[in-house]
C-alpha cells in the first residue's frame, strides 16, 4: 500500500500485548509500532480489498463521473494473522475522483483505519 509506514524493529509478542493492556490503560498504538502492519495489509489485500473495490465500482456505476465521498466499514477476523485480534473494524474514508474516458478512471484520496477494541 502506498504511503504505509515501515514496521518497527520487532514484532510484538505475548509480553508486549500484556504490558500494553495492563499497564498503559489500553492507550492506542499503531500497527507499524507493533511490527505487524505488513501482515495486516497482506490479509487485507486478500480478503478486504476485493470487497472494497466492488463497492467502489458499484458506486461509480451509479454516480458516474465527478468527485464525491465514499465511506465504508465492516468487521473482519484477523485472528490467524495475530493471535490477539479477533474481530477488528476496518473503515475506508475516501474522496473519489472519477473521469469518464470511455471507461472510468478512478483516483482516490483515502484513509484506511483499523480498530480493535479490547
What would a concise description of this structure say?
The chain has helices spanning 14-23, 37-47, 49-63; strands spanning 66-77, 87-100, 104-115. The protein is of the alpha+beta class and 118 residues long.
Describe this structure in words.
This protein has 118 residues and is of the alpha+beta class. It has one domain. The chain is 31% helix and 32% strand. The chain has 3 helices and 3 strands; from the N terminus they run H-H-H-E-E-E. It has a 3-stranded antiparallel sheet, with helices on one face. The radius of gyration is 17 Å and the shape is elongated. The two termini are 26 Å apart. The model has no long low-confidence stretch (mean pLDDT 83).
Q: Main traits of this protein?
A:
118 residues, alpha+beta, three-stranded antiparallel sheet, elongated
Number of domains: 1
Proportion of helical residues? 25-40%
Strand order of the largest sheet: 1-2-3
Largest sheet: 3 strands, antiparallel
Please indicate the percent range of residues in DSSP E strands (runs of 2 or more). Answer: 25-35%
Layout of SSEs?
Blueprint: H1 14-23, H2 37-47, H3 49-63, E1 66-77, E2 87-100, E3 104-115
Antiparallel strand pairs: 1-2, 2-3
